[in-house]
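Lecture notes, continued. The same structure-token format from the folding unit now serves as the input rather than the output. Read the line below as a description of shape only.
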């Protein structure tokens, strides 16, 4: 459904703090108002004080708060990157432990006003895999986390409304909110409750063939 797709991927050892920051800067600076910007973080996360931090590959001792503060990618950083983007359709997905704490960075008045400006033509949607106190569950049988499995199932068509072929971002996140606690229990994990923040209008994210 998109004329062109530009994909930037950082896996394992590529996902250093500097490369993550450089990639985010490059991507947000390239976006135009009609673009859809999707950012997906999958890895370790940690909370220090009132901030959530994504743990890059080169942060070797995440149990030390001072290293997390110096090398982690904070939720406040993410809010700043999103504010720089011209794209008016934004989806931020965080599949990391305690990532629900990240949404606090988007709830201040200044951030909300900036996000409202982004949302004029469409919307900004943010989903975190777990609450600020929960760990994200991974299941060997699925080959990845329960959240990622649920998200993929929604994109493959389970999140489409009856008889329709288009999956919108609002419907996708509603599907994840509904199914993730059930699926996590099915695999004998504690119920996992995603945290969703949205502003503005819905927009399509994929078409099911």
């Amino acid at each position: 459904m998109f004329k062109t797709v530009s994909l930037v991927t950082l896996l394992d050892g590529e996902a250093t703090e500097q490369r993550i920051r450089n990639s985010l800067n490059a991507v947000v600076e390239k976006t135009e108002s009609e673009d859809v910007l999707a950012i997906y973080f999958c890895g370790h996360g940690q909370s220090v004080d009132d901030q959530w931090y994504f743990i890059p590959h080169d942060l070797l001792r995440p149990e030390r708060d001072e290293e997390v503060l110096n090398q982690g990618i904070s939720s406040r950083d993410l809010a700043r990157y999103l504010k720089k983007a011209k794209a008016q359709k934004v989806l931020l997905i965080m599949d990391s432990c305690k990532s629900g704490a990240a949404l606090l960075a988007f709830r201040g008045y200044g951030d909300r006003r900036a996000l409202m400006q982004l949302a004029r033509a469409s919307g900004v949607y943010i989903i975190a895999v777990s609450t600020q106190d929960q760990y994200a569950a991974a299941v060997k049988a699925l080959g990845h986390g329960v959240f990622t499995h649920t998200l993929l199932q929604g994109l493959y068509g389970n999140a489409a409304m009856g008889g329709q072929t288009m999956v919108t971002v609002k419907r996708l996140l509603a599907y994840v909110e509904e199914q993730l606690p059930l699926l996590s229990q099915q695999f004998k994990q504690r119920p996992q409750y995603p945290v969703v923040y949205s502003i503005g209008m819905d927009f399509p994210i994929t078409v099911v063939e």
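Point for the exam: The longest strand covers residues 36-42.
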